[in-house]
Amino acid sequence: xxxxxxxxxxxxxxxxxxxxxxxxxxxxxxxxxxxxxxxxxxxxxxxxxxxxxxxxxxxxxxxxxxxxxxxxxxxxxxxxxxxxxxxxxxxxxxxxxxxxxxxxxxxxxxxxxxxxxxxxxxxxxxxxxxxxxxxxxxxxxxxxxxxxxxxxxxxxxxxxxxxxxxxxxxxxxxxxxxxxxxxxxxxxxxxxxxxxxxxxxxxxxxxxxxxxxxxxxxxxxxxxxxxx
Length: 228
What we know:
Number of helices: 8
Strand content: 15-25%
Mean pLDDT: 85
CATH superfamily of the largest domain: Jelly Rolls
CATH architecture of the largest domain: Sandwich
Strand order of the largest sheet: 1-2-9-4-7
CATH class of the largest domain: Mainly Beta
Number of domains: 2
Helix content: 40-55%
Oligomer: single chain
Structural class: alpha+beta
CATH topology of the largest domain: Jelly Rolls
Low-confidence stretches: 4-12
């Protein structure tokens, strides 16, 4: 879909985003000056999407690496029966489109939808990887980002193949708890979103969560959970 696009045509405009980008894994150990040069030389641009707008639709040709600058989006796909599955929640700093942009076909197998108003940095893949940056750090960081997504996908597979809904819930909550390194943690999904992520019926999920709370396995209030 069309979006409001503003070209990063001068250094002052670019500098607005350098602080956030410096902490992004795509620019790990790359100086602010070099990031600024990369954005300028790669023809990076910023796009604004409104809530409900598609950043990427299935079968779109993807040629840009996207970085969420603000807001939240959701990556999902449909199975053969037309049921939607949530693959990932994207928030500030999330990188998307990189795997598709690097592929031969460049066709997207997922839909990325804005769930709030979203601001995105779009960096043409071929322009970025063709730059001769110091020690090819950008390319190395891109490999690291893609490999991290591989392990996240493996974790997702390990979750949804659990034989019971309770095991799926516990596996997911344990994974989030370990990442957050805290006893009480917040999950990014609504009940409907969590049901889609776990490939479960929403009503069955609500019943199982209540049963697990009653059995003393978990405690929760809305999207805040604690493993007991």
